[in-house]
Amino acid sequence: METFLALVGFVGLIAIVILLLLDKTTPQVTFILVSSFVGFGLVLLENFGLPIGATLGVKDGVFSIKALAGFIKGGVSSVLETTALFIFSILFFTILSATGFFDKIINALIKKSGNNVYAVMFLTVLVAVIAHLDGSGASSFLIAIPALLPVYERLGIRKTTLMLILAASMGIMNLLPWGGPTLRVASITQADVNTLWFSLMPMQILGLLLALCLALYMGYVEKKLGAGSLVDLHGESAFAHIQDQTNHLKRESKFYINLVLLLGVISLLFFSKLPIYFSFMLGSSLALVVNYKDLSIQNEVVKDAAIASMMMATTLLAAGILIGIFDKTGIMKLMASLILNFIPDSLGVYLPIFIGLLAVPMALIFCTDSYFYGILPIVASVGSAFGIDALSLGIVMIVCRNCAAFISPVVPAALLGCGLSGVSIKEHIKTSFFWLWGISIICLFAGIFLGIIKF
């Protein structure tokens, strides 16, 4: 019976991965329908006399609707804090972006870069870091590429280089605690998202330094190819003909107040013991009141943020159902036990290395949801049998995979970036793949050397 339930789990998760890869339904629909089908199927099999509940160790030994409801509640409860964090962090950064806070910083940086190729390379990393503070790949490309592409074109720098540097920088920046992948790993491993972030922070800092080194090296390559001899743009944009439709939301006079707000929220994240989501709740509330006195404008900004946050929030809540039915029931443990029968003890201990080395190639095949929700739970269960901490495996999968997040053809933001820059996804992958894989591998072994990844 244990083998049967493990196979049920594998069939369910494989179905989820296939549906996500085929892009036939949204992750929310996939998680809810497949998980519900498995859950109700187990209840039905229990009624037919199979000892489902007894095998899973359910209270009273019966896998009933009541038992199923308890598992679902437990799964959804485990992602509530993560969901709140995502919603209010998106709201906070949407407000700052609407006020023109980030535009002012980026425009000032562009004007100072001049026609110095190395300065432009450094600026690209800096813009990517600033633009990606909200954790959204799509909005980051929408901010960075229109600002930087004209500079690249006038200086004769290849557009593939722009996409490479943006992908390297944004992939590492996406490890922030309100970024989608970090939230996913925290919800699956049941880890506090702040604890997870602080654990992987040295690897993130190294990754950003590597992205900067790559940018400067690419500056050397571009100089060799003759870049830098053309007319400087002085911050002008090829997208200048696109009129800003949200000028009435600009609050450039409030720049320093918003800067204090941002620093205050970051300080709460680092130095207080308050829940991380509360920092963004407080910050977004203050930002709304300070910048927009009119209630109708406040509602407009909140609605803009809702568009960005609703997809991820509903995905996280739907993932709670998946966690409840596949993990809380104990099916994941049975799946891991089945896999263990085929893994020699001598190799199991090196699971983090194998997963880390394969993370970048897997990023090209598996979308974010199928990778974390479909693969991580099984890997974590297998690792626990070899005494490998789930948090360590989560860090391996998030850091190593995220290095290549924005070259993956199954990540919509990567396709958006390619469309904005005029670089085909094929060119982007060809130019960036091995550079990003190299950054990923260096971060992996640095994590092992620093004792962050334990096995």
Task: Supply database-style keywords.
455 residues; mainly alpha; 21 helices; 75% helix; 0% strand; globular
The main pleated sheet reads as: none
Uncertain segments are 230-245
Radius of gyration: 23 Å
Q: Beta-sheet strand percentage?
A: under 5%
Distance between the termini: 31 Å
The proportion of residues forming helix, as a percent range, comes to: over 70%
What is the β-strand count?
Answer: 0
The ordered string of helix (H) and strand (E) elements is: HHHHHHHHHHHHHHHHHHHHH
The tally of helices reads: 21
Class from secondary-structure proportions = mainly alpha
Multimeric state of these chains?
A: single chain
Shape call: globular
On the 0 to 100 scale, the average pLDDT is 82
Q: Can you walk through the features of this model?
A:
With about 450 residues, the protein is mostly helical. The chain has a domain at about 80-185 and about 195-310. The chain is built from 21 helices and no strands. It starts with a helix and ends in a 6-residue tail after the last helix. The model is unreliable at about 230-245 (pLDDT under 50).
